[in-house]
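FIELD: query
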Amino acid sequence: MKRLETFLSKTGFGPSGLHRADGGNVLHSTTRQIAHARRRARTTAWFWQRCGCHAESLALLDAAGATAPELRLRAAYALDLNATFLELLGKRPVRGWTVAARGLSHLALGDADAASADLAVALKGSADSGLWLRAAAAFAVLDAKHVRDALADRREAAARLLLAHLTGDAAGVPESAERDLLQGDAARMFARFGLAEDAPAIEGPRVSVIVAAYNAERTIAAALASLAAQSWRNLEILVVDDASTDRTAALAARFRLIRQPVNRGAYVARNVGVAAATGDFIAFHDADDVAHPERIARQMAPLLQNKELAFTTARWVRRDAMGKFRCRQIAPLLRLHVGSMLVGRPFLDAVGEFDPVRYGADSDMLLRLKVAAGPRRFEALTLPLTIGGYDPKSAVHDPATGYGERGFSRARQDYRERRTLALIERLR
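FIELD: result
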């Protein structure tokens, strides 16, 4: 299998993307490959999934009229198409990874009873499997005592980690960034990744950082100070005040400020900011987040070293008002920061604007960027470069449109499903 992957990769068998890093169209784009790869659809779709190109894989299978149920299931799950996953699963025998996946899908769609049965089975499995921690942590939200009791005698690292989250005792967790966060030691966590608070100043192309803000007087000063302290010096900090009624605009007045006359949401504000930005690269930062001083420099480094790369992302942690690190569904604390996209301006212009909705457009934009770039043309850094705010009253945690501990709101889930399936249709 490894030899086949290497051969296929060297012969350019993977999706090529839709746009070059400079914003131009790819000559032999993914859509053309889909049109010409129907005879070998299953083999190609399998390899594309190995490349992480799940939307492209589903588009190819659709174009070829191939059933390929296992490939479709894996792609739907990877894309968080929970309703589609359950529909594809139907009455098929559920075993192995699909037990945990079905439980997580039920939970995301709000069916806690159906989720509990599957997640309880997944909890008994090997803690070394890729889905185990996600499934076990989700089950702990539903029945923390059951999970604590079940993990008491387990020695696997993931099991000890989850137990530490549930008990507050990190003694059994090996030395790691996760243990640092459990103990509230962010400085030590950053040091593990070689991130320095006093990194030397770096000059380079202009980067415009768009900060969409609404009634953020409590947090925006710290957010902007963290950007002003970046080691990357050629920085345009552009605040788009989304018709705030508090002191947000006054606190941002020393930076470049655009004031919206009517509140239209963060994604419209970001689009306004991008249109006004003068940088060669575009980054985004929320008004309740704090960036590590090396955030921009670390994300820019791969883009300058490899001109074929279109964008980078990084990881983050969330901290509540009491200074405790936490996340939805308990663990792990260190996760992909969907909003961390740092993108070359021509490439972003080619991909287009954020969908002007009130929620969910970060994930939609990230998937569009990945599909437009193709594999190996973006870099997901494992570095934690942002500390995010955690406010249970914020829009992100609104039970109607945000993330709940038990999964997405149904509105957010339906939005993701609709947008992702529409993207697959366009590829097909």
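FIELD: remark
Residues 229 and 341 are 19 Å apart (CA to CA).
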